[in-house]
Amino acid sequence: MITKTIDYQDGDTQLEGYLAYNETGAPLPAVLVAHDWSGRREFACKAAERVAAMGYAGFALDMYGKGIIGRDGDTEGNAALMNPYASDRVLLRQRINAALNAVRELPQVDAARIAAMGYCFGGMCVLELARSGADVTGVISIHGIFAPGNAANEEITAKVLCLHGHDDPMVPPEQVLAFEKEMTDAGVDWQIHIYGDTMHAFTNPVANNPDFGTVYKEKAAKRAYQSVANFLDELF
After folding, report:
1. How far is the C-alpha of 5 from the C-alpha of 19, rounded, in Å?
2. Which CATH number fits domain 2-235: 2.40.50.140, 3.40.50.1820, 3.40.50.150, 3.20.20.150?
3. What is the pLDDT of residues 147-204, one digit of tens each?
């Protein structure tokens, strides 16, 4: 497997992505990987490598800026990093579309076959990528935030898969139902897989804060990654 960092720009903001792929001699379908609220750290990079092991190019994108990262357990600090984007979906869409544009230019990538997946805050990001009308084949939200923000939707052409814990306090049932209606009204090809007795951040092995609502759940994580594999196989 080949891995490398990729510098790219959003206006004047310097960003740094992490590319992982296996050399095949031909351009590969690509999957953008949007990080959780702590930034483009090892978890997102390992997710890009997981994508590469499936036969695609994985690109862990950067929402915050080169070198700007949080840390596990720092809810106040991580929230401060995330909130400017969560509260301004126009800015968020611009930033994640900058990653999409950068990936399209990579020689390792088939520009006509690009999808996106994201964790927690990153799930919000890839759903906003779809809402922006971006030309991606599909997006996957993994314990992501469903609620829309302050930007109107463009025509959504991407297929949508959401992998969600039923006991996630950050996405209560009424938010799930509202999202289902939003996607249905927009004519989207959508799926939501809901895992019982499962909280937020269920794929992250270091998540262990039941009072905050973030707990790793191995069974749900295995089921979710099987669904990711199936969905990407369908797309590509």
Report:
1. 6
2. 3.40.50.1820
3. 999 999 999 999 999 999 999 999 999 999 999 999 999 999 999 999 999 999 999 9
